[in-house]
Amino acid sequence: MAPNSPRARRPGGARSARTSLGDRLRAWRHHHRDSLRDALNRMRAAPSSALMTVLVIAIALALPAGLAVLLDNARVITKGWDGNAHLSVFLEMDVDEDRQRRLADDWADFDTVKRTEVITRAQALDEFKALSGFGDVLEALPDNPLPPLIVVYPDNTAPGQVEALQTRLNALPEVDNAQLDVAWVRRLHAIIELGDRLIGVLTLGLAAAVVLVVVNTIRLAIESRREEIVVIKIVGGTDGFVRRPFLYSGFCFGFAGGVLSLVLVGTALWWLGGPIDELLNLYESEHSLTGMSPSTVLVLPLFSGTLGLLGAWLAVSRHLGDVEPQF
């Protein structure tokens, strides 16, 4: 082809650069890494303000988390008490021991009774001496003042069934009083259920407070970096590019607050552990105060980080659009 031909002298057109999918994913991954590093560096650059924000989040989350741990301990301690529901049936004083045992055998055959237990007057007196500390006083009495007792364990612990059995036993001529001994346990379970719901309401309220704290923190961060954001938008930075560092900042604040809340709850449980264990020993309980479960330790920081991410997203969605280049 001749060098001076028109085709040879035709200038080459501009070629569009094509970016492969692998390069895009690599750039996306690098920007996420840089955004996380930037968020951590900015927290380290302002340690006092960052610590105050993290501490507020930690206190807000430690309160319901600590109450939930104490409630779980109370639930474990009282677990199975309903299965020991029983009636203490006090007999007339003139009922002898043989008659007491025959009555216990007869009542054990009731279709609503699981089993019975005989406590004679002598056994009741010995037990009372051991537990009350008034052994010397009781020794001075001319006669045993305690009545014979039969403990009746119902087959069905439903309130209606137990009350029907109590009425049936009270109607017998040898019975002085049939007393239900687990009413207070049921009240305790009702209180625990109420506490569980109160903790749920408290958690929702304080979670909303955490979100608002992060919203305010990220809003201030956006205002302080207004000029930087304007420059990024002028050179073609997308909203997602600008938004990403703030989202990581919100997550880091929330995650750090969740970790610190674990420390606060653990410290509080350690401080309360001694008195609570001593109290349980006084009641001859085999249980002791337990800390947070491994699942809670894992979930709480992630839950807090999610709240921080949500707060950052709300703040960025609301305020980032107000930062635009002015031409």
From TrEMBL:
<dbReference type="Pfam" id="PF02687">
    <property type="entry name" value="FtsX"/>
</dbReference>
<keyword id="KW-0132">Cell division</keyword>
<dbReference type="GO" id="GO:0051301">
    <property type="term" value="P:cell division"/>
</dbReference>
<feature type="domain" description="FtsX extracellular">
    <location>
        <begin position="87"/>
        <end position="177"/>
    </location>
</feature>
<feature type="region of interest" description="Disordered">
    <location>
        <begin position="1"/>
        <end position="21"/>
    </location>
</feature>
<keyword id="KW-0812">Transmembrane</keyword>
<keyword id="KW-1133">Transmembrane helix</keyword>
<protein>
    <recommendedName>
        <fullName>Cell division protein FtsX</fullName>
    </recommendedName>
</protein>
<comment type="similarity">
    <text>Belongs to the ABC-4 integral membrane protein family. FtsX subfamily.</text>
</comment>
<dbReference type="Pfam" id="PF18075">
    <property type="entry name" value="FtsX_ECD"/>
</dbReference>
<keyword id="KW-0472">Membrane</keyword>
<feature type="transmembrane region" description="Helical">
    <location>
        <begin position="292"/>
        <end position="316"/>
    </location>
</feature>
<feature type="transmembrane region" description="Helical">
    <location>
        <begin position="198"/>
        <end position="218"/>
    </location>
</feature>
<dbReference type="InterPro" id="IPR047590">
    <property type="entry name" value="FtsX_proteobact-type"/>
</dbReference>
<dbReference type="InterPro" id="IPR040690">
    <property type="entry name" value="FtsX_ECD"/>
</dbReference>
<feature type="transmembrane region" description="Helical">
    <location>
        <begin position="246"/>
        <end position="272"/>
    </location>
</feature>
<feature type="domain" description="ABC3 transporter permease C-terminal">
    <location>
        <begin position="202"/>
        <end position="318"/>
    </location>
</feature>
<keyword id="KW-0131">Cell cycle</keyword>
<dbReference type="InterPro" id="IPR003838">
    <property type="entry name" value="ABC3_permease_C"/>
</dbReference>
<keyword id="KW-0997">Cell inner membrane</keyword>
<feature type="transmembrane region" description="Helical">
    <location>
        <begin position="50"/>
        <end position="71"/>
    </location>
</feature>
<keyword id="KW-1003">Cell membrane</keyword>
<dbReference type="InterPro" id="IPR004513">
    <property type="entry name" value="FtsX"/>
</dbReference>
<comment type="subunit">
    <text>Forms a membrane-associated complex with FtsE.</text>
</comment>
<comment type="function">
    <text>Part of the ABC transporter FtsEX involved in cellular division.</text>
</comment>
